[in-house]
Amino acid sequence: MSPHNNQTPLREDLARIAQWVKPESRVLDLGCGDGTLLAHLKHTKNVQGIGVEISDARVLTCVQRGVHVIQQNLEDGLAMFEDQQFDTVVLSQTLQSMHNTEHILREMARVARNGIVSFPNFGYWPHGWSILKGRMPVTGQMPYGWYDTPNIHLCTLKDFERLADTLDFQLLERATFNDQHEVTWLAGWRSTLAVYRFTAQAGKSHV
Asked: What is the largest CA-CA distance in the chain?
């Protein structure tokens, strides 16, 4: 069966990311997983996509889907890519597990005109309630216990926006979600997941 005929439904953040990607553009997907996003973009928008993934099983799935993938640890950086080689670079639900957060964001800005990141929102109000009760939060977006979580750099929406300002990024768009539904009111408290589109061209943010 052709990979075009076996499309996996997109997560809410991936669906919004797909909306932000222009047709026939060049896309780099960091931590691309099983290649769902790139396969979707190739099929629906005719993009030229490359994924980076470390998992053997996920790399194999990417190949089976016809997705061009490079097996590498993102912590090693993006030195194999040239400056502004891509139109868009994506880092979906991986930022919070990176050891060197600033470095990967700067590298994203180097290799592409626009960057898109999504991450769990630690400002979601039940998280604070859980901490007040003396326990680390465990939710759908952060399902791990404190002792086995891969999430080492959790942040709120304001935390990320402050970092983006420090890096001289211009935030172009923001979308926030809770259980597959978009959240627009009191997003910092009510959303479990945030998605941002940014550029390294400094200027007044739009979000």
From this structure: 52
Say which residues have a Cβ less than 8 Å from residue 170's Cβ, sequence separation at least 6.
198, 199, 200, 201, 202, 203, 204, 205, 206
Residue-wise pLDDT tens digits, 2-57: 444 455 678 888 999 999 999 999 999 999 999 999 999 999 999 999 999 999 99
Amino acid at 11: R
Whether residue 175 is contained in a domain is answered as: yes
Range of the domain at 124: 3-199
34/61 Cα distance (integer angstroms): 5
Q: How many domains does the chain have?
A: 1
In our burial notation (b when 16+ CB lie closer than 10 A, e otherwise), range 152-179 reads: eebbbbeebbeebeeeebbbbbbbbbbe
Q: What is the DSSP letter of 155?
A: B
Q: What is the CATH number of the domain that holds 92?
A: 3.40.50.150
Assigned domain for 205 exists: no
**Cβ(70)–Cβ(51) below 8 Å:** yes
DSSP H or E run through 161: helix 157-166
Q: Take residue 32 and report the two structure tokens written for it.
A: 């691309």
Note the pLDDT of residue 64: 96
> Euclidean distance between the first and final Cα of the chain, in Å?
42
Q: Is residue 207 part of a domain?
A: no
Residue 138 lies inside a defined structural domain of this protein:
yes
d(CA 180, CA 187): 14
